Amino acid sequence: MAFTSEHITSSAIEATEFMDLSRRFRVTGVPKTVVNDTIEIMGALPEDMFVRAALQMQPEEHDGEEDRAL
């Protein structure tokens, strides 16, 4: 999704090379997606399932800006 939207950025980290980040984000398996340090999705999902999972887990308090960005 980050490749198709200017509102989304992404970074890929090699868990075995960056152990400090692996510990910080409690990576126990890959792939693991962490969004804004609050949403965690474990495993590979098709895009539509990933979007549904991310939207269901979004933080309660927001101004709706995230919804407009998608």
> What is the count of structural domains?
1
Terminal Cα separation, in Å?
9 Å
Relative helix content:
25-40%
Low-confidence stretches: 66-70
What is the chains' assembly state? single chain
Structural class: alpha+beta
Average pLDDT confidence is: 78
Radius of gyration: 13 Å
Shape: globular
- The tally of beta strands, per DSSP, is 2
Portion in strands: 5-15%
Give the biggest sheet. Answer: 2 strands, antiparallel
- The number of helical segments is 3
Neighbour order of strands in the largest sheet: 1-2
**What series of H and E elements makes up the topology?**
HEEHH
Description:
- The chain is an alpha+beta fold.
- It has one domain (19-69).
- The protein contains 3 helices and 2 strands, in the order H-E-E-H-H.
- The protein has helices at residues 19-24, 47-56, 65-69, and strands at 32-35, 39-42.
- It has a two-stranded antiparallel ribbon.
- The longest helix has 10 residues, at 47-56.
- It is globular and about 30 Å long.
- The N and C termini lie close together (9 Å).
